Amino acid sequence: MVRVQVQLTEEQAERLRRISRERGLSIAALIREALEAATSRPAHDERVRRALAAVDRATPGDSPDVSEGHDRYLDAAFLP
After folding, report:
1. How many alpha carbons fall within 13 Å on the CB side of residue 67?
2. Which of 5-9, 24-28, 46-50, 74-78 is predicted with the least confidence, judged by mean pLDDT?
3. Would you place residue 23 in the very low, low, confident or very high pLDDT band (cuts 50, 70, 90)?
4. Tell me: the pLDDT tens digits for 42-78?
5. Under 8 Å between Cβ of 50 and 78
6. d(Cα 13, Cα 7) in Å, to the nearest integer?
């Protein structure tokens, strides 16, 4: 591991401490987790692909309610 130093606002530090206590993780682990989530391009690309596929399935000819039913289409694409 590489050691880094980061400056946070008091509010950010307090939120990290609270989440650390709630989840039973170190602040360092939370920061690593957040950094991984923020920089995980494959996960982002997959979410975009799934969202576009859901919209593509709801073509205007097949589903005239796309503007009203978009939540339903996205739920079908993302929920188990």
Report:
1. 0
2. 74-78
3. very high
4. 777 777 787 777 767 655 555 556 667 777 777 777 7
5. yes
6. 9
- Amino acid present at 76: A
Tokens 């494959």, located at residue: 42
Residue 63 structure tokens: 């589903």
- Three-class secondary structure of residue 64 per DSSP: coil
Q: Where are the alpha helices (DSSP H) in 1-80?
A: 10-23, 27-39, 41-57, 66-78
Q: Of 61, 60, 56, nearest to 76 (Cα)?
A: 56
| Token pair of 80 as six digits | 């188990």
